[in-house]
């Protein structure tokens, strides 16, 4: 039975998320290395005040994902496949041994800085649950305008999507979705319009930055955000890491691909739990567990019981 490691993205953050990580020695070593590379105490990133910044959120989420996976691997729990949602893709790339941790950390920092500088306020993201893509697309197209752009950003499940854009347009789309029968239509704690055409200028900068960083072919299969394909080639992963910034994340298709390849245990890294819920709902015959919710011991027991 194959095991997949899932790395959450922005929106899964919470105050104290780094302090809540496992006290496992190798996980703490990752935190120490992050502090050295960034030349700051990384626990300063996890306060409620700090997490109002896109930069702190993306850095803390990335660090938490790598630290958790490092602890699991140290204890003999290794994935056959990895997938990261949005900024989580950088953590997946590190665990797949295609990017070095220090290089990825600095790339995530630059990525977040460029995003925050381009959209300091007035934009964001929301989530809609319970409508199909055709129905939601019609609502988005009706609202979208040059002065208030809005787009479908991510397909997380067959009837769960995120939307990104101008705050006024987001509110109109969410209101329209609720009126159309969505079971949930709310804003997300994300202050930038990720994974849509508004991010094209930042994608170009990230592409240049990635081209200056050494990358290796992955040691395990990596699920591309932009097309849900399982890839190993460094060049393909490099392209995915920048291209996904201005294109929707095809998360649901990636998880279906994993299931078709035999994945029956989905393990979500800290600080997330939403990806676990998505996998549980989509694949009742598989197991899904969040390290953040269940802890390392529970994950260890499940992993070795099913392998």
TrEMBL record:
Question: Record's superkingdom?
Answer: Bacteria
Gene Ontology biological-process entries? fatty acid biosynthetic process
Q: Domain Malonyl-CoA:ACP transacylase (MAT): where?
A: 6-296
**Any keyword Transferase?**
yes
Catalyzed chemical reaction(s): holo-[ACP] + malonyl-CoA = malonyl-[ACP] + CoA
Asked if the record carries the keyword Repressor, the reply is no
Q: Which UniProt keywords apply?
A: Acyltransferase, Transferase
Family the entry assigns: Belongs to the fabD family.
The entry's protein name is Malonyl CoA-acyl carrier protein transacylase
Q: Which organism is it from?
A: Paenibacillus hemerocallicola
């Amino acid at each position: 039975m194959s095991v997949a490691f899932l790395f959450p993205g922005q929106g899964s953050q919470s105050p104290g998320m780094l302090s809540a990580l496992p006290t496992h020695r190798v996980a703490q070593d990752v935190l120490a290395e992050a502090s050295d590379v960034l030349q700051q105490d990384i626990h300063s990133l996890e306060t409620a005040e700090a997490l109002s910044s896109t930069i702190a959120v993306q850095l803390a989420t990335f660090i938490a994902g790598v630290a958790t996976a490092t602890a699991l691997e140290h204890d003999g729990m290794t994935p056959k496949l990895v997938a990261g949602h949005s900024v989580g893709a950088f953590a997946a790339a590190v665990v797949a041994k295609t990017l070095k941790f220090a290089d990825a950390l600095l790339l995530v920092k630059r990525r977040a800085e460029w995003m925050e500088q381009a959209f300091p306020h007035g934009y964001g993201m929301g989530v809609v649950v319970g409508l199909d893509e055709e129905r939601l697309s019609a609502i988005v197209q009706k609202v979208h305008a040059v002065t208030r752009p809005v787009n479908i950003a991510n397909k997380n499940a067959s009837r769960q999507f995120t939307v990104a854009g101008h705050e006024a347009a987001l509110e109109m789309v969410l209101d329209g979705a609720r009126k159309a029968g969505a079971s949930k239509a709310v804003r997300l704690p994300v202050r930038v319009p990720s994974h849509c055409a508004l991010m094209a200028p930042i994608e170009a900068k990230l592409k240049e930055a990635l081209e200056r960083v050494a990358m290796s072919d992955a040691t395990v299969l990596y699920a591309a955000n932009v097309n849900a394909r399982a890839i190993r080639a460094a060049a393909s992963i490099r392209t995915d890491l920048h291209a996904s910034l201005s294109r929707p994340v095809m998360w649901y298709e990636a998880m279906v691909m994993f299931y078709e390849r035999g994945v029956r245990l989905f393990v979500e890294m800290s600080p997330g739990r939403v990806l676990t819920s998505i996998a549980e709902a989509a694949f009742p015959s598989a197991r899904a567990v969040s390290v953040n919710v269940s802890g390392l011991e529970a994950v260890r027991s499940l992993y070795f019981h099913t392998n």
